[in-house]
TrEMBL record:
Residues 111-182 form the NADH-ubiquinone oxidoreductase 21kDa subunit C-terminal fungi domain. PANTHER family: NADH-UBIQUINONE OXIDOREDUCTASE 21KDA SUBUNIT N-TERMINAL DOMAIN-CONTAINING PROTEIN, OXIDOREDUCTASE 21 KDA SUBUNIT, PUTATIVE (AFU_ORTHOLOGUE AFUA_4G04750)-RELATED. This is NADH-ubiquinone oxidoreductase 21 kDa subunit, putative (AFU_orthologue AFUA_4G04750). Pfam families: NADH-u_ox-rdase, NADH_u_ox_C. GO terms for cellular component: respiratory chain complex I. InterPro entries: NADH-Q_oxidrdct_subunit (IPR053229), NADH-UbQ_OxRdtase_su21_C_fun (IPR024549), NADH-UbQ_OxRdtase_su21_N (IPR019721). Keywords: Membrane, Transmembrane, Transmembrane helix. It comes from the Eukaryota. The keyword Lipid metabolism does not apply. The keyword Cytoplasm does not apply.
Length: 189
């Protein structure tokens, strides 16, 4: 289509939340890296629920399938439980990135991580191996995807710059910290 400017990026829609938005499309590494110990505990509990429930049902009302009938089904129940547990963990962590639940710990972790990257001169959201066009496509496809993850498991696996937040705050904080470090060196010498 002639005359269309492909460099124009439609900003992501911002959800109205009680807590600050950290990232509207967090990379899967960040989601698991920022997960709280309570997320892992709840995820482990959810993972254990399926095999435990199946074992309990077998004890209350035995199926009498005979030798070798119980173990394959128990393995399936365990696999379903593990998938469910990872889903619960991922969902809880993503809800904090989006600001749907309390996220003060994650806001501090995000600020520290990004300011450190600014100081080192690294790209904020990592270097990407795909073209800018494909980065935009990936961002549009996976943004807020965790809200529908129970139907379509879709994760952000691409580093890109489309996260729905103003990154100027990281640069401003880095400047303040570098200036404070410079002043402390001057006063100590």
């Amino acid at each position: 289509m002639a005359g269309v400017n492909n460099s124009t990026v439609v900003p992501p829609k911002r959800a109205l939340t009680d807590y600050p938005l950290i990232d509207s499309d967090p990379h899967v590494r960040r989601v698991f890296g920022y997960a709280r110990p309570s997320d892992y505990a709840v995820g482990a509990g959810a993972a254990a629920a399926s095999p435990l429930a199946f074992w309990l049902m077998e004890r209350v009302s035995p199926s009498h399938v005979g030798r070798g009938g119980f173990s394959p089904v128990m393995r399936l129940a365990t696999a379903i439980g593990l998938i469910g547990g990872v889903h619960v963990l991922y969902q809880r962590s993503c809800n904090r990135f989006h600001g749907f639940t309390e996220n003060s710990r994650e806001v501090e972790m995000d600020m520290r991580e990004m300011v450190d990257k600014v100081k080192k001169g690294e790209p904020l959201y990592g270097a990407s191996q795909v073209s800018p066009h494909l980065q935009g496509v990936a961002a549009r496809n996976s943004r807020y995807a965790n809200l529908f993850i129970q139907v379509i498991p879709w994760f952000n696996l691409v580093n890109h710059e489309h996260h729905g937040v103003d990154t100027a705050k990281y640069y401003q904080q880095a400047e303040r910290e570098l200036e404070a470090e410079r002043l402390s060196k001057l006063s100590s010498s």
